# Entry
Amino acid sequence: MTWEPQAEGLNQIITLLKQSQSTDNAIQRAVQMKLEELNQFPDFNNYLIYVLTKLKTQDEPTRSLSGLILKNNIRIHATHLQPAIIEYIKQECLMALGDPSPLIRATVGILITTIANKGGLQTWPELLPTLCDMLDSQEYSVCEGAFGALQKICEDSADTLDSAALNRPLNIMIPKFLQFFRHSSPKIRSHAIACINQFIINRTQALMLHIDTFIENLFHLSSDEDREVRKNVCRGLVMLLEVRMDRLMPHMNNIIEYMLIRTQDPDETALEACEFWLSLAEQTICKEALTPHLAQLAPVLVRGMRYSDIDIIILKGDVEEDEMIPDREEDIKPRFHKSRTHTQKAGNMNSQDQGARPMEGNDEEEDMDDPYDDMDDDSNLSDWNLRKCSAAALDVLANVFKDDFLPILLPILKETLFHQDWQIKESGILALGAIAEGCMNGMIPHLPELIPYLISCLSDKKALVRAITCWTLSRYAHWVVSQPHDQYLKPLMEELLKRILDANKRVQEAACSAFATLEEEACTELVPYLGFILKTLVFAFGKYQHKNLLILYDAIGTLADSVGHHLNKPEYINMLMPPLIQKWNMLKDEDKDLFPLLECLSSVATALQSGFLPYCEPVYRRCISLIQQTLNQDLASTASPGQFELPDKDFMIVALDLLSGLAEGLDGHIESLVVSSNIMQLLYQCMQDSMPEVRQSSFALLGDLTKACFQHVHPFIADFLPILGQNLNPEYISVCNNATWAIGEISIKLRDDTKPYIPLVLAQLIEIINNPNTPKTLLENTAITIGRLGLVCPLEVAPSLQQFVRQWCSSLRNIRDNEEKDSAFRGMCQMITVNPVGVVPDFIFFCDAAASWMSPKADLHEMLQKILLGFKTQVGEENWSRFVEQFPQQLSERLAVMYSI
# Structure
């Protein structure tokens, strides 16, 4: 196709491109509108490619911009573009890849990748062969341009390149790339490694065939003088560690020595190399391979934890007081709400628990926040840097080597912690926090000296030192709480509360987070200090800027979770509620700040119980309204997509969870609110939502309303139970968990009216309890629910006893005495009475479960004893003695003491 631009059109587009580089927002908006208009003309895109590839008289930024606008057009409008125009753009791109300008080559590369991604590589069959041929060009710019494009394609389409649909082009490409590892240009060497690195993690067959050549070539380039090359070598080695440890093993000593040097590089290679220690720590050979190098590695990691001078400038580390400066909205990270999940408390020998409650958090993944993510939470500092990586590496290595690491670490800590230079001292405090988990036992003898020293560092004149000290102290909170209060807890609390009111925003944030950790560790130990704590937290309300206000909500919610009903005193309520309600009234329904505030109120409502009554009506009404609005918006956007935008369902989820908190806290008092609202109809809709988190929170609320005011749930049971049965799908663990729990709560209220619903749920529950992959929380809730179904409908459930009794007993032996465990065991006793043969093969498991009670109620104790004695009588003395010989000694003794058997 030959196409020529018209002079007038070309000038118009060049003028627009120039204007769009203006800093004036009004001009930019006008240009944006004009560009949208021009998209109506089919050959507008021809002009854009012409400016990029042919108009050598224009400056590079303008030409490049033309290519980037074209890229966006292809991304958005590709399907509407005429095939002839796409063909023209493709051919021009391939011709321009060798442009003398690196900027233009890079832009053309981006354009090529975008076209390949939109249409799929199979619609451009000549692309890869052409690019591979261009690699052999004697002209540097052609070879480099082609490699740049190939690297982007490898990054974007690694899987496709290995597919049979394309005839496995990698079989040709990988040997080809390997030839360029020894090219004279560092840029080309770097492209070659970066291309192959894309195929390591997936163990791509074409690469595995050449793995030895690849590794040999990587080693050859390890001492390359080019920074990019070294960075890519480090990246490749880190990935190989996970994928082909067998091939690296013979060279491990040299690799470790190499990475030690690279981790000290003055540029970003150091970060790539530092990742190596994180990866190595996960390998079984870590201890053996690293032991000879630990003494060299530890000081390198601690040095890597220092703030660089650039970091300090970016962090405004020299600005001590900034509490009056408003936050920029873009500095506030989005928060994610965790929906409620019903969990059991683990049993221990002296704890009583009044039943468990739906808690927050997803069991889909263990809730492991990376402590290094928010250690220096600053949007200006790149999220992951050498400092955080070094600290994380020291942490994982401390977990590998445990206290054996201390002889090396203690001298380093002594030297850094008490250093005159605040940057070194700060890195020492960070290192002390990083090793807290792994080296806790060995650190205990040093803590009586270190904790008071750290508490004194909370008033250091440098804000960055005060902030990191908060974090490190939070890592030792568990030990502090276990000591006599006057020694460490009280002084720590007093100082942390002062830091919550610090004049520096970073310190406020670190202190609030550390205090939340302390609250979780101390729980009711904080009750004597509640007045003092609340005074500080409430004072912070008037002082904090936007970002820290959100963290303050979290600290207050955690306090409520930790001290529970002890918060329900008029003087505490009068301090805490007015500022919370004031914020609540100020926020609009579409403001995402409602999330943390609603989460906080949910914890407060649960803790205050009847103390929340004066506040509950407006809170309840607003939650109902948030759910209604979200459902309406969802309906509108589904009915006419494009006209209405999709709702943010988090508003609905958070509102459902706050209603759960109200139902649990207010118990029967919520009845008057429920009766005058359409909550049951809303719940019916939410329980069928396509989003698992919405269903998860709906089932938690259903369970809580069943406990609080079953009379209003009862009329809807025939609609609700089939939905619960359909959600017993362990693929969505938390949804399944809450549905299971709700079924158990409903059965307790329905009693023998549960009978018609047993076929809807029993088979799935038995399948879940027998699945080896079922997580602990779900196992416990499933066992409790099966027990409860057996309690109310023993004749229907007992025939299946043999299918679940062993798993049932194993799951419930570990939870504390509470109402749920009580009702489940009563159900088991009923089922055994109906079907004694069902328990015989697994009777030892039943004995063990019976022994797990600390103090069962008298009538339950009698039921358990009767079953044990009945079995003993049935089998006769001699058989019983033989049976008891299999018991662990502790079990025999416990049964003798508890049940006189």
User: Anything to note?
Assistant: The longest strand covers residues 340-342. Confidence is low (pLDDT under 50) at residues 347-369.
